[in-house]
Write a structure and sequence with these properties.
alpha+beta; OB fold (Dihydrolipoamide Acetyltransferase, E2P); Helicase, Ruva Protein, domain 3; 3 domains; 5 strands; 45% helix
Length: 217
């Protein structure tokens, strides 16, 4: 399996959103063609850097056994992609096309059951949006906390229940671009809801807040 490619970009193909990467020396080596999801392509197409370091997903289609490499700038992007292609009726090609927004945006929409945002992605209709939510809700909380497409390390570490959980959730929401006032308001609403069990960790509280945002913007 090819999990990562470092090398020199020697050709860019707009029609297939792919880049050819030479991994060898001047004396010779292998050249790989790597397809890029739309969000990754947009991040690279303006500058088209010569040196590339991509995390890759290696895929061999059942009906056409020609290997395909899908490239990502960061490992969390690739991890999210692998979760996405596990959703029923979501193949590699459709997932590559659908990733036109940032991973954090898509993951937040999933956790908040925001069908409107999901159906704005290329190739995603209402039924597919429902499948994505049903299959991935609760499984992409960490991806929803990506800040500038990087993991928020604080959200990944275990925390004690209570005030520290609320404080960490507040910092994570501010890191996502929300105001401190809104973060405090949403956290207070979730913690005071009589029909919700007390959150035991930051991930539980953030999941509840994202659901609250989806229904009470």
């Amino acid at each position: 399996m090819i999990s990562r490619i470092r090398g020199r970009a020697i050709a860019w193909h707009d029609d297939t959103q792919s880049v050819e990467i030479d991994t060898g020396s001047e004396a010779g080596g292998l050249v790989y063609e790597v397809r890029l999801p739309t969000a990754v392509w947009r991040a690279l197409e303006e500058d088209r850097p010569e040196a590339l370091n991509l995390f890759t997903h290696y895929h061999v289609p059942d009906r056409a056994p020609v290997p395909v490499l899908i490239g990502f700038l960061r490992q969390p992007e690739r991890d999210f992609f692998r979760k996405l292609i596990g959703v029923p009726q979501m193949g590699v090609a459709k997932a590559q096309q659908a990733l036109a927004a940032s991973i954090s945006t898509i993951a937040q929409a999933i956790e908040a059951e925001d069908r409107r945002t999901l159906t704005q992605l290329p190739g995603i209709g209402a039924r597919q949006a429902d499948r994505i939510i049903a299959d991935l809700k609760g499984k992409v909380v960490e991806e929803a906390l990506l800040v500038d497409e990087r993991f928020d390390a604080k959200a990944q570490r275990p925390v004690r229940p209570g005030d520290e959980v609320a404080a960490d959730a507040q910092e994570a929401l501010i890191g996502l671009g929300y105001t401190r006032r809104d973060a405090d308001r949403w956290i207070a609403a979730v913690l005071s809801a009589p029909d919700l069990p007390p959150p035991q960790n930051t991930a539980d509280l953030l999941r509840a807040v994202l659901e609250h945002i989806g229904t009470n913007p």
